[in-house]
Amino acid sequence: MKLLQGLLDRHYQHLQQKPFYPALLAYMTSGPLVAMVWEGYNVVRSTRAMVGDTDSAQAAAGTIRGDLSMHVSRNVVHASDSVETALREIGFWFQQNELVAWESGDSQYTYGP
C-alpha cells in the first residue's frame, strides 16, 4: 500500500512534536509498504524477537533490523509493543472486513492439545 500522511499522523501521534518527525514522515511515505496483522501464542514477544531492537546498532544479527537496517530512523519495520497497542494500531491500518479469521491446519501440532 501507499502510505498517506493522515494515517502516519494518527499512528505516530505521540512523535509529531519530535524534531525527527518530518524525516520519519518523508521516509515512511517514500515508497510502498506491506501492512499485516499476525496472531498466535505470544505473538507480540515472538514478533519483537524476530524484528530486533529499535536501534539497529543494538539489534542482533539474524533479526530484521539487525540484518537490514542501518540507522534507528530507518529501522525498516514496525512491530507493536503490546497487544493493547496492536489493537489500537490495527484500527488505524485496517477495516474490520479486511481482517481474515482462520484456523491453521497445523495448530494442533504447533501448540498441542
TrEMBL record:
The keyword Transmembrane helix applies. Signal peptide: none annotated. It comes from the Eukaryota. The keyword Transmembrane helix applies. SMART domains: NDK (SM00562). Keywords: ATP-binding, Kinase, Magnesium, Membrane, Metal-binding, Nucleotide metabolism, Nucleotide-binding, Transferase, Transmembrane, Transmembrane helix. Residues 1-101 form the Nucleoside diphosphate kinase-like domain. GO terms for cellular component: mitochondrial intermembrane space; mitochondrial matrix. One of its GO terms (biological process) is GTP biosynthetic process. It holds the Pfam family NDK. It catalyses: a ribonucleoside 5'-diphosphate + ATP = a ribonucleoside 5'-triphosphate + ADP; a 2'-deoxyribonucleoside 5'-diphosphate + ATP = a 2'-deoxyribonucleoside 5'-triphosphate + ADP. Its cofactor is Mg(2+). It is found in: Mitochondrion intermembrane space; Mitochondrion matrix. Gene3D superfamilies: Nucleoside diphosphate kinase-like domain. Its EC number is 2.7.4.6. GO terms for molecular function: ATP binding; metal ion binding; nucleoside diphosphate kinase activity. InterPro entries: NDK-like_dom, NDK-like_dom_sf, Nucleoside_diP_kinase, Nucleoside_diP_kinase_AS. The chain crosses the membrane at residues 20-38. It is a peripheral membrane protein. PANTHER family: NUCLEOSIDE DIPHOSPHATE KINASE. Belongs to the NDK family. This is Nucleoside diphosphate kinase. The lineage of its organism: Eukaryota, Metazoa, Chordata, Craniata, Vertebrata.
